[in-house]
Amino acid sequence: MTNLDLTKPTAELAAQGTPLLEVDDLRVEFRTRSGVVNAVNGISYSLGAGETLAILGESGSGKSVSAQAIMGILETPPAVISGGGIWFQGRNVLEMSAEDQRTIRGPGISMIFQDALSSLNPVYSVGFQIGEMFRAHRGLSKKAARAKAVELMDRVRIPAAARRVDDYPHQFSGGMRQRVMIAMAIALDPRILIADEPTTALDVTVQAQVMDLLKDLQQETGMGLILITHDLGVVNEVADNVAVMYAGEIVERGTVDDVFGRPSHPYTEGLMSSVPQVEAKGGRLRPIAGQPPNLARIPSGCPFHPRCARRRLGAEAAPGRDCATDVPPLRLVVPGREAACHYSEEVLGVRAP
Amino acid sequence: MTDQQQLDLRKDAVEAGTTTGLASPSVDVTKERQNSLWSDAWGDLRRNPFFWIGAVLGLAFLLMALVPQVFARGADPRSCDLGNSRALPSAQHWFGFDTQGCDYLANVVYGARNSLIIGVIAVLVILLLGVVVGALAGYYGGLTDGILARIADIFYALPLILGALVLLRVGPSTDIPVINSRGPGAVAIALALFGWMTAMRLVRSQVIAVKGSDYVAAARAMGASSRRILVRHILPNAVAPVLVYATITIGVIIAAEATLTYLGVGLQRPAISWGLQIEAGQDSIRTAPHLVLFPSLILTMTVMAFVMMGDALRDALDPRQRA
Amino acid sequence: MGRYVARRLLLTIPVLLGASFLIFAMVYALPGDPIRALGGDRPISPAVVAELRERFHLNDPLYVQYWEYLKGLFSGDLGTDFRGRPVLDTIERTLPVTIKLALVAIVFEAVIGLVAGVLAGIRRNSFFDNLVLVSTTLVVSIPILVLAFFAQLLFGLKLGWFPIAGTNEGLYSYLLPGLVLASGSLAYVARLTRTSLAENLRADYVRTARAKGLPNRTVIVRHTLRNSLIPVVTYIGADIGTLLGGAIVTETVFNLPGIGREVFNSIRSQEGAVVVGIVTLMVFFFIFFNLVVDVLYAVLDPRIRYD
């Protein structure tokens, strides 16, 4: 068994000041027949109680893979965690036995997925699937677990929970199904909830309801929330901090207001100008040129340089800062802001130190 | 989709061994997509040892059927010497001799031709019936579909061997051409007549699935005619599963032919057929087991060739199987 | 559900009638003289021929003959063979043999097929998985006729473990023919289970089950096996009807006095009434078990809503 204390309320822990989760230089690769795909290339971050971290990126940027690595649900093989560490409440998850890892999933870290219809088992009632959490981790009886399921369904505001507890996933609407997923994920009051594109498959009005629900639940329980998304609007609404991922790396990190207000990485900058904004009606949208990189052949130097409007190559570049050959490290640009670009100061419009 | 149609779809998938869903009908089969499907499939096939074993066995069978004299080592299947009756295999006569004292290798080798003829004719007729009836039923739906699907159900309910057995038994006393011939044509037609339904349902289910897709709606919105939609957009989707099915079915038909001939209603002497050889050999199975062994072995290897090629094709053409 | 079953039952009537008419038409409508065949080498007097033709409605048009047959069928009379024995008696005598054979075959098919398929599917690409893949390819490729001979030769003659023909040793006599009859379906069940399981292991809801921290056994048994077995169970159910057809060859080779051998002998001797009677029965079984499977499917998979 783990000697992790998963019974104390999360809020109490928050007072002690240790982060709930620390990810350090995490690397994940997929070893396939056609070669090695580098999905996550050394990302680090930490998450405290009550904090919301948004991980923003296109599909294929490694954001979901890193989350699944933290959960310990990567399919291995083909996936291999090739380096780094994941500390949950001060203990390295990667060094734990499989059984210890399992006991963290649910009460420690919990996850909801994008497509609730395919992520729920079609042949069991939703009540059964929510109740399973209590049966597997708390040893509750079938009947007691069902009663708990009704409570949870009430808590995530599913109307007529007592009547619907024995219905099957396909009998619910998309938004209600996502609520079922959320009920299942928060069943054991997890320290951390990872939401992987929780609203992408939903209608806009339903999206807002689901996000509000997540926000409220977080305030009630003080859990840490990792929100994986490509939706800038969602990030803006709920997150405290944001990490922007590109080609398996974090390219910019800071508070949401800072990063969105004044990007310091050309990729973030590109993202900002490629979404329509109500205030800037009439202006043209500028999509980022080119294609996301092939993770089996990540470009040399800065992985973003083939698509970058601000790149400097050869003679144009400052010494040791050629975008095509020198890898930019993630560095502090201004207090509270990190970016992996040789020319972040230019992007920000401040003088280099 | 009605519940009946849904049910049929599920059953077809199970019957045809395509539960993993072949070409996904929700994507358009434009030329490029088709090309990449087939080139990916070929890349997959090349790495599959089962495919190569099947292909080599299949090629050997084909050559045996086309140029048997090459494999018979110079022996004539019909020049016999009773003095050699049931002689066991030897260095000169690899398969020994049969009861009439004919070289058995030559006889077994010459048996391939009838199997090939019957397998190919039957499968061609099955495809013709299957594609035409299936496309009509799936495309027009409604009453047409209801009637055609029920007719297929009727044939489904009769086991293949049983239906062909009855037809071939009464065939010779009728004046229906081909059916009354007692030849390979009669056997092929009888087997096709009781074996076309799976092909029909495969095509039908593909047509129903594709018909409801967005790109067919788009083609219709742009004013494409029914026939054009059917031929250009819908049928190409059915090619992959039908090809898999047809390959395996050649093997199934060859086995069924041998069985019918063994049961006495298929090919008749003096035709040369593996079924006849097994039937003649069974009486001396204790003293001359090679008379049953060799035709059985070659028959099994032939069926295996088509099963292996079909399996490999299915794995290759199913994008979901690819990791 | 009730309405669904009722509608399915109604739909089976035309299929049952159609199939029996098809076989009836083939047996009776095509020229050829069963009366003469009955006499063999001995000449039969024209008066007797005329009388027999009258008795068996052989002079009436086909649809009249079929109508007469149906009338008999609904009053429980399947007619008599040319020697005057009621067809129903023949069926009563032979059916138990085939039922025993089919039951033995289903047990083999379900037990061996499922176990092999599950083990192969869970450990994909392992040695055992490849073994299952190779051996099922082999078994599927061996025609039942050939398999029957070699089973007789090896287990009956060489090893002497099983009787090679007849039913003298009770249920034990059914083991070898049962295994032969089951072989093809057995291989198919193993493969279906394997693919279905491997496919389900990649399903999103299995990932969810892992994310929930369920023990590995629960993830496999409750969230993967349960879903994977739906197509397998329905296949096995539908296969009961198919096995009856396969019994023709098995029973003939192993000399088991079941309906398969009986129908084959009757086809050879053109005993029309027996052929039509037994084939109609086989069709009925086939349709019945398919109906059972459809209902079973709805029970196993709540996504199927029939009403």
Describe this structure in words.
Chain C: InterPro entries: BPD_transp_1_N (IPR045621), MetI-like (IPR000515), MetI-like_sf (IPR035906). Chain C: Keywords: Cell membrane, Membrane, Transmembrane, Transmembrane helix, Transport. Chain C: Belongs to the binding-protein-dependent transport system permease family. Chain C: One of its GO terms (biological process) is transmembrane transport. The complex is a heterotrimer of chains A (353), B (323) and C (307). With 353 residues, chain A is an alpha/beta fold. In chain A, 33% of the residues lie in helices and 22% in strands. Chain A has helices spanning 10-16, 63-71, 98-104, 116-119, 126-138, 142-155, 161-164, 174-186, 204-221, 232-238, 256-261, 266-273, 344-348, and strands at residues 21-32, 35-47, 52-56, 79-88, 91-92, 109-112, 192-196, 224-229, 241-246, 249-255, 331-334, 337-339. In chain A, strand 11 (331-334) and strand 12 form a beta hairpin. The N and C termini of chain A lie far apart (50 Å). The mean pLDDT of chain A is 84. Chain B is built from 14 helices and no strands. Chain B has helices spanning 3-15, 31-46, 49-66, 68-71, 104-110, 112-140, 142-156, 160-170, 184-193, 197-211, 214-221, 226-262, 274-281, 290-317. In chain B, helix 1 (3-15) crosses helix 10 (197-211) and helix 8 (160-170) packs across helix 9. Chain C is mainly α and 307 residues long. Chain C folds into 2 domains: 2-74, no CATH class; 87-300, Orthogonal Bundle (MetI-like fold). Chain C is 78% helix and 0% strand. Chain C contains 12 helices and no strands. Chain C has helices spanning 2-29, 34-39, 46-55, 62-74, 87-122, 127-141, 144-158, 172-201, 204-211, 216-253, 259-268, 272-300. Chains in contact: A-C, B-C. At the B-C interface, helix 1, helix 7, helix 8, helix 12 and helix 14 of B face helix 1, helix 6, helix 7, helix 8 and helix 10 of C.
